[in-house]
Design goal:
By secondary structure, the chain is an alpha+beta fold. It is built from eight helices and seven strands; from the N terminus they run αααβαββαβααββαβ. The strands form two sheets. The chain has a four-stranded antiparallel sheet. It is extended, with a radius of gyration of 24 Å. The C terminus is likely disordered.
């Protein structure tokens, strides 16, 4: 029938489509002509939240793969917190330059929306012993649960020290999200995601590491954790 576009379907007679494709032809014709009487479901519950990226240049080095998974974890974690959801399952997808795709998943004991946890699981799942190069990487969270319900039940069993630590970390995440909502999605991010840092933590005169040079000098002897390395982009 030489139908290449939706417009082609819309201009074809309903009878000919029905004759060739049966009920599917009638359904396609109606949709192509903007006739859809199905009820709208704007509040449909999310079953998964994820992000993936296809690269112009294949990733060959393991460090580049790790950096990309960190960026994906930050993005997915922010989306989870925005919707008030935590994930019990973390999945990765990796496609090489021969278009062979692998997927791996892990179920968590404790649900999370923290990018550090998502990042750690993604590295655990990624087969770094398998040769790339990699054309696409993705990170998805599923088996989502409402965070408010979890917080109420968990507080009954947490000891005071554990509860205070979780509360402190939650405030950190809320502060990060608040800055990113106000100044843009990349305003506050792990400094690991920078290509390079110049003198005193500056990059191109527009970005600087949080904490100042004194704090960085003081912390040189200890290996920094991901949560210690955030960078603030100064905007006009």
């Amino acid at each position: 029938m030489n139908l290449l576009t939706i417009g082609d379907i819309a201009r074809t007679s309903l009878d000919s489509l029905t004759q060739r494709l049966g009920e599917n032809g009638r359904r396609l014709w109606l949709l192509a002509n903007l006739c859809d009487h199905r009820p709208v479901e704007p509040l449909r519950e999310a079953k998964s939240i994820g992000s993936e990226e296809t690269f112009e240049c294949d990733l060959r080095e393991s460090e580049a793969v790790k950096r990309k998974f960190l960026a994906l974890a930050v993005k997915v974690g922010e989306r989870l917190r925005e919707k008030g959801l935590k994930a019990l399952t973390v999945s990765i997808k990796a496609r090489d330059n021969r278009f062979k795709t692998l997927t791996r998943s892990k179920s968590l004991i404790n649900p999370t929306w923290d990018h550090q946890s998502l990042y750690a699981v993604s590295l655990e799942l990624m087969p770094f012993d398998r040769p790339g190069p990699w054309r696409l990487l993705g990170l998805t969270c599923s088996n989502l649960v409402c965070a408010d319900n979890l917080n109420k039940s968990a507080s009954l069993f947490d000891n005071i020290e554990s509860h205070q630590e979780k509360e402190s970390h939650q405030k950190l995440l809320e502060a990060i999200d608040k800055v990113n909502r106000r100044f843009g999605g990349n305003s506050l991010k792990p400094a690991t995601l920078l290509d390079s840092l110049g003198p005193e933590g500056q990059r191109g005169g527009e970005e600087r590491a949080l904490g100042g040079p004194e704090k960085r000098d003081k912390d040189k002897e200890k290996k920094p954790e991901i949560k210690d390395l955030f960078l603030f982009s100064l905007k006009e």
